[in-house]
NAD-dependent dehydratase
Amino acid sequence: MKVFVIGIAGGIGRRLAKALIARGDEAIGPVRRPEQIDQLADHGVPSIQGDILTMSVAELAQAMHGSDAVVFTAGAGGKGGPAATSAIDGDGPRKLANAAALAGVRRYLLVSVFPEAWRERHMNDNFEHYMLQKKKAETELVRSGLDWVILRPSALTDDPGTGMVDLGLAQTHREIARDDVAATIVDLLHAPEVSRTILEVTGGSTVIATAIGAVTDPSHESR
């Protein structure tokens, strides 16, 4: 499987690319700065120079030509204010969806944000704008004709992955390692039966493959 990753230089994207390659798949994606190409190459991850904010839909489609799936893991991360959040977190996923449709790539996994159980917290206006843009991106992808999966990870850590998660339509919030988010994405990409659904993932006690199996077959978990 060849996967085109937006955010390949980021915390989840880099781990995802390495995990895909370790499995025997291919991963590639655009990076904004030339030095990032060398940094990723040092870890065995290929990339191209480009920026989803400035690339046209046609340019993105050409860059992903031959891919079997696309993954959007990018985020403004609070940098650049509301305008950057709107452009990257809100508009970026739609642009990638349009490019995927043009390139004939149907499988699309969007890394979104936070299980709904996390939303009892009172947050500032900037964070609420971030949440608004993430939900906007989800809604637009759901309305697309693509073979989409939306994954909402809980608060992220750089702890080593455990290979264990809680995954489902609604989860109680607890932190999750970026390693485990990346591993979950890899297995979801290889689970075509998981399609057109929104899943929440947190740190947990179920082996990732078993958790994914239970999404489509609830009896799988107890086997």
Remarks:
- The helical segments are 11-23, 34-41, 57-63, 81-103, 125-142, 178-189, 208-216.
